[in-house]
Structures are given as structure tokens and as C-alpha cells.
Design a protein that fits this description.
With about 450 residues, the chain is mainly alpha-helical. The chain is built from 19 helices and 2 strands. Helix content is about 60%, strand content about 0%.
């Protein structure tokens, strides 16, 4: 299907009729009087003149030459007896001349200027207008960024008039989609419904064209945010989402270039994506803005003072307390992976240089095992009740110390009786005959 320009009339009946009348006026009428019969020399001379004229017209204009047609002025004079034949031949010549002149008038007819406010649709084939992106790129390389730039570079840039035309078609398509959403299935099958469907599809094609022609703008803006925690292609993809938003909200009646309007949406999409995805630990967007503001002020004061500013100096510039400045600086620190390679060879990692305070030293593990065995031997020298009270009171069995009430409920006695048993048993354990074996572990 070929698009059309609405409210335009490139060919009208009036222009065709005026061109035909003009062609008839320029064509001479056939001879009315009988004249002498032409000689062979005259006929040869007339044929040479016609051939020369046709050859000259073909060399002047860079178009394909047409077959030389007979002209009324080049016709030989005939006798009175041949008036009917001459008139018949002249009529055929006039008809041929009229047809050729009419075609020339149609080709030369000036286009009617587009009225203001008219909806402009495409004059080219839909397949030629919409940028085509193929997943199979000829001469693809191992660099995906290079392949992407090569692919989007095939789409020509747009001028201001083309942007306005596409924006008008997009607006019409969105309006048609809104109208179709309110129609029933039966109404969509009517002539109006089919027309709205066509307008909606044309708006989608215009949207794709405007997007494809501005993908290079996204790349140029994404380059400014590289090295901040996101891959370059990820930045481009997030910027493309902002470009789609800009295409849908662009108002061509304001008179601004589309790139001017789309830049803000692209930057917003990229910065929001960086705030959500660039950090290992996600920080809310409003806090990211505070961190970025603190970093800008800190860099500026470093240049002015020639040293790192103190939290008090930063707090005066940012209108916040010094404690808040320290807290924001702590939030802005980026965590480092323990597997970060170190050195030129990368044979060691950052985690190799950090002490694990919770790691168990082998000597301490052996000493702890021996202490457990020594305690078990001491508890075996006590009665079953005394050993049970000590184990539950200090959590020697499960690591969970119990209260006097809990121990009393277990043995069926009061908490006071459990306290007395505990005191008596601890006095036995403190006796030098038993405690001497445990003193070595206290040194």
C-alpha cells in the first residue's frame, strides 16, 4: 500500500484540460487548399529535417529520446484530389500530438501547496520509509558496540520539516488508537474502523522512523556516563527507553527541534537506571541525589582550599549537620569485592590481605577440645543431679544456659533448692584437688 498526502491534489482535471487546450493551440491545422504533389527530393529533405530535429532534441535534454513524430509543418503539400487523405492523416497527427502534449503537461503540472493544518501522510512506500534493522549484520565483528553503531548509522538524519511531519502522523495514530479503544468489534469492521486502523498503523510506522533516526543521539549522551558502574550497551538501552517516552510526548507545535526535547528524557532515563542498578547495594534515588551533590561540593572545595574539606566545612556549604555529612559519605562508599585481583600478575586477591577475626586458630581449637574433655571428667566425679544442674545452669550441653526456675521445673524442686545444689557443687569444683587441672587453661 502506498501512502497519500491528504488535502493535496497533485493532478486535477482543470490542469489536464488546460494542457490539452494549449497543445491543440500550438498544433497547426491541416492544409485546406490543394497544392502540388511533392517531389522525391522534397520528401528526402523533409525526412532528413525531421530526423535532425529529433536528434537535436535528444541531445539537449538528458532523457530517453522519443520516436520522432510527424509534425504538421513538415507534411508535404498534396493535390486537390488527395484532400481527404491529407485531412485524415492530419487528424491522426493531431491526435498523436495531443496525447504527447497532454502527457507532458501532466508531468510539468506544478504541485498544489499544502494548506496549513493539513494532516501529512507519506508519499513513499511503507517498506522504504521505515528503517529496517536486520539481526544478521553483514561483516559483524566481535565488538557488539561497533556492530550496533554500524547498524544505526544506516538511517539518515531528519530535518525539522520531516520531524514535524512524522510527529503529526504519530499524533494521528495515537488519536486513532484512542478512538478504536472505545469502539466495538462490529464498529471496527466498518469503513471508519478500517480507516482508523490504517491511521494507527501509519502512526506506528512514523514512530519507528523517528526512533531510528535519533538512536545516535542516545549513544552520544550515554558516552558521558560510562565508567560509573554500568556497561555502555546497558546505558544505551536505558537511554532508548527515554527516547521512546520523548517520541510519545513530543509536541511539534512548540517549534523546538526534537533532539532538544528528547535530550532531557534520555538523561533522566539513564540517571534513574544508574541509581537503581549501578550499585551493589541499592540506594534510594533521593539519597543518590544527595550523595552526588555532596561529591560535587567536595570536589569544588578541594580545588578552592587545596586540601580535603572537613565535615564541618561541608556541613556549612550543604546546610546540614556534620553528623549527617559523615553519614552521607558512608552511604556513598562503594563496596569492593574480596575477589578483586591484586598485583600485575593477579595471582593474589584482596581477600587474602584481610584478617578473619572469627576464624579459629588450630592451636586454640585443640585446647578447646581438651578443655571439654577435662570438664566432662570432673562432672563424672559428681552425682547425677549435681552434674545435671551444672550442665543446665552453664549451658554445657546445648550452649543455652537455663534459669533456676527452668532447672527446678525439670527436676521437680523449687528454685531455692536448685540454688543450694549449685552453690554446694561449685564449692566442690573449686577444691584444689579438682580445680588444679583446669587452671592451666586460664593462663
Amino acid at each position: 500500500m502506498r501512502g497519500v498526502r491528504m488535502a493535496t491534489r497533485p493532478k486535477t482535471e482543470a490542469s489536464v484540460e488546460s494542457a490539452a487546450n494549449e497543445a491543440e493551440a500550438t498544433t497547426p491545422a491541416p492544409a485546406a487548399k490543394a497544392v502540388k504533389a511533392p517531389t522525391k527530393a522534397a520528401l528526402a529533405k523533409a525526412a532528413k529535417a525531421a530526423a535532425a530535429e529529433a536528434e537535436g532534441s535528444s541531445t539537449e535534454a538528458p532523457v530517453a529520446p522519443k520516436p520522432a513524430r510527424k509534425r504538421a509543418a513538415a507534411k508535404p503539400k498534396v493535390k486537390a484530389g488527395d484532400d481527404a487523405a491529407a485531412a485524415d492523416a492530419g487528424a491522426h497527427d493531431d491526435a498523436d500530438s495531443d496525447d504527447d502534449d497532454e502527457e507532458g503537461a501532466k508531468r510539468a503540472a506544478p504541485a498544489v501547496p499544502l494548506p496549513s493544518g493539513a494532516l501529512v501522510l507519506s508519499l513513499v512506500d511503507d517498506e522504504d520509509e521505515v528503517p529496517v534493522y536486520s539481526s544478521a549484520i553483514t561483516g559483524a565483528t566481535a565488538d557488539p558496540v561497533k556492530d550496533y553503531l554500524k547498524q544505526i548509522g544506516k538511517v539518515a538524519l531528519l530535518n525539522a520539516a520531516e520531524e514535524v511531519e512524522l510527529a503529526m502522523r504519530i499524533e494521528a495514530g495515537l488519536f486513532a488508537e484512542d478512538k478504536m479503544a472505545q469502539m466495538t468489534d462490529a464498529e471496527k469492521k466498518t469503513a471508519l474502523g478500517r480507516e482508523l486502523q490504517w491511521v494507527a498503523k501509519d502512526g506506528a510506522r512514523a514512530k519507528s522512523h523517528l526512533l531510528g533516526a535519533n538512536l545516535r543521539l542516545v549513544v552520544s549522551l550515554a558516552k558521558r556516563y560510562t565508567g560509573r558502574g554500568m556497561q555502555f550497551l546497558d546505558l544505551i538501552q536505558e537511554g532508548n527507553l527515554g527516547l521512546i517516552r520523548a517520541v510519545e510526548k513530543f509536541d511539534y507545535t512548540k517549534g523546538f527541534k526534537f533532539s532538544t526535547y528528547a535530550t532531557w528524557w534520555i538523561r533522566q532515563a539513564i540517571t534513574r537506571a544508574m541509581a537503581d542498578q549501578a550499585r551493589t547495594i541499592r540506594i534510594p534515588v533521593h539519597m543518590v541525589e544527595v550523595i552526588n551533590k555532596l561529591a560535587r561540593v567536595q570536589r569544588q572545595m578541594l580545588q578552592d582550599l587545596g586540601r580535603e574539606p572537613t565535615p564541618e566545612e561541608l556541613s556549612r556549604e550543604l546546610d546540614m549537620t556534620p553528623e549527617k555529612v559523615v553519614e552521607v559519605q558512608k552511604y556513598g562508599r562503594e563496596p569492593i569485592s574480596l575477589h578483586t585481583p591484586l598485583g600485575e600478575d593477579g595471582d593474589s586477591e584482596f581477600g587474602d590481605l584481610i584478617e578473619d577475626t572469627e576464624a579459629v586458630v588450630p592451636a586454640d581449637a585443640v585446647g578447646f577440645t581438651m578443655l571439654q574433655k577435662q570438664l566432662e571428667s570432673l562432672l563424672d566425679s559428681l552425682s547425677e543431679r549435681e552434674a545435671g544442674v551444672i550442665r543446665m545452669r552453664f549451658g554445657l550441653g546445648d550452649g543455652m544456659p537455663k534459669t533456676l526456675d527452668q532447672i527446678g521445673d525439670t527436676f521437680g524442686v523449687t528454685r531455692e533448692r536448685i540454688r543450694q545444689i549449685e552453690s554446694k557443687t561449685m564449692a566442690k569444683l573449686r577444691h584444689p584437688s579438682r580445680s588444679q587441672s583446669l587452671r592451666d587453661y586460664l593462663e
